[in-house]
Structures are given as structure tokens and as C-alpha cells.
């Protein structure tokens, strides 16, 4: 049974400006494992990766029903790629199954999270 769904759009230019301004956005949004992946990429891919994880965590918090804040923070959700390159939610506060999709264009990243209980 689907418990919640969340969708988010994030502009890549907005994330790029924050990175160029020297804001500590990667450290705020990414878990240590995600930060290790981020650090291995070049500048363009770093923007895409960070924007994707930011948007995915926003989508997760919407599916959870709280938004980013006290109940679900950026560090509470971890998204890592599996061996095939598919993003998977590897750490989360929800006790069921979490499904995620991340898609990019040159300007936007779109994410969707579905939270499910029961058979997966």
C-alpha cells in the first residue's frame, strides 16, 4: 500500500550558484558516503549530483508528509547508486520501502519518491 508520494523540481543553476558562492551546501545536504561520491566528480557532474540529492530528499520529505525540518532532515536520508547505477534510498526514517527516480535535463532535475508498506 502506498503511504505517500513526493515530487520535486530543482534548477541546476540555483545549485551551481550556491556552490560558486562557497556555501557549505554539500556538507549540509549530503551524508558522508554521498559526499565521498560527490568529491570524485568534476564540477558539472557535482552540480547534477548535488541537485539530484537535494531534490530527492525534498521529494522524500514530501512523501513522508513533513517537509524538510525536525522530523526529516537532509542527513536522515541517504541515496546511493547500486551496482547498475540505479539510485536507491539506503537510509531513511520510514520503516517500509522507498522507491526513487531521479531525472536531469541541462537545466532541471526532477525527482519522485514513493513510500510503500507491505509487499514490494
Describe this structure in words.
The protein has 120 residues and is α+β, with helices and mostly antiparallel strands. It has one domain: 4'-phosphopantetheinyl transferase domain (Ribosomal Protein L22, Chain A, Alpha-Beta Complex). 37% of the residues lie in helices and 30% in strands. It has four helices and five strands. It has a three-stranded antiparallel beta sheet with strand order 1-5-4. Strands 2-3 form a two-stranded antiparallel ribbon. A hairpin with a 5-residue loop joins strand 2 (78-81) and strand 3. Helix 1 crosses helix 4 (43-64). The model has no long low-confidence stretch (mean pLDDT 94).
Q: What is the N-to-C order of secondary-structure elements (H for helix, E for strand)?
A: EHHHHEEEE
- Which CATH architecture? Alpha-Beta Complex
CATH superfamily: 4'-phosphopantetheinyl transferase domain
Low-pLDDT ranges = none
> Which CATH class?
Alpha Beta
Mean residue pLDDT:
94
Kindly give the count of domains: 1
- By DSSP (H or I, 4+ residues per run), the number of helices equals 4
How would you sum up the global shape?
A: globular
Q: Give the distance, in angstroms, between the N- and C-terminal Cα atoms.
A: 9 Å
CATH topology: Ribosomal Protein L22, Chain A
Helix content: 25-40%
> How do the strands of the widest beta sheet line up side by side?
1-5-4
The largest β sheet comes out as: 3 strands, antiparallel
Number of E-type strands: 5
Structural class: alpha+beta
Strand percentage lies at 25-35%
Please tell me how large the radius of gyration is: 14 Å
Oligomer: single chain
